[in-house]
Amino acid sequence: MSTLSLLLSGSKSESNRALLLQALFPDMTIGNLAIADDTRIFQKALLNMSPLFDVHHAGTAMRFLTAYFATQRGVDLTLLGSERMCERPIGVLVEALRALGADITYTQNEGYPPLRIRGRALKGSQVSLRGDVSSQYASALLLIAPSLPKGLTLNLTGEITSLPYLQMTVRFLQYMLGENVAQFVDEHTIIVKPCDELLHDHWQVESDWSSASYWYSCVALSQVGTQLKLSHFKQDSLQGDSALQQLYLPLGVRTIFQGTTLVIEKVSTPTTAHYTAHLNNTPDIAQTIAVTCLGLGIGATLTGLHTLKIKETDRLQALKNEMEKLGAAVTITEDSLELAAGAQLGSGVSISTYNDHRMAMAFAPLLLKTDFEIADKEVVSKSYPNFWDDFAEVMEFCK
Asked: Can you tell me which family this protein belongs to (predicted)?
């Protein structure tokens, strides 16, 4: 059996966590850092000496930097972003930081960037935060917590969205600083103790599971027997999107580990005529799964998607708009997407990407089934700059 091998860049989520901790502990080193725009912007911001910094579309950078700069005495700067970034709420995080003693003001609209941040020593040690908006708010607080004089007790209220990303943050801190430094007390309470030295001084970033999702989709849309190999991955991954291994089984794709190489193979046609999944823990792969189901001609019910409305675009509305161009019948609510089975794929249309990297990459695998254009293709650089080079290889291999 012929096999194509791809080497994927480091995880953006892991890389940005590692960069923030490295800013607090300069002796720390990082391997396999992501080459994504978001990570490069974040890295540049940490070295920024000017009173103004533009994060563009980098949502993780906006959240993590807000927390980091709030703790840096003597800092006085304004964080701004793209037009869409200034429509994405950040009030939940700002209020939590203010409760700890931060000096942050909104320079335009209350609750939204741009933000003016005057760094100071934060004296608070306990804060409550809504858990149903974005896990990045909580992770931002947890990552600065070791530098706080009394550490931090974080209480999360309501349903917790993207729990694996919080677990990633806690497990990362445990590895770098010690098991006793960061702990879940229960499912809604996390304690991080103050810490001034590293337990380990190096973090090797795993390749990005979110990026792997597009290759799962390509395999699912290919003939039985198609196999791709992806490097470098861990069986005990910190990344929530490693759930792809289970989520793509009903779509006929099996996953096997060979050391740090991920082998994904199309072993059957879909085992269900209507795919269902609750994606509250893995919202970043919802677009990929929806488009895969469209390409396979099966129906789908995807739930737990309420955070998609405040991403780079309103991803639920964007999915509906663009899937319908290709002949799909799609119904959306505030937190779900329903795809009717049996769509006859159209062709010759232009798929809009809405400045959203995941829209471009999620729709790309459908090019194995029909012809269409993807507008603003270079938006993929936000997370996967060499995506189209890899995709050209996969297209030639899978067709």
From this structure: Belongs to the EPSP synthase family.
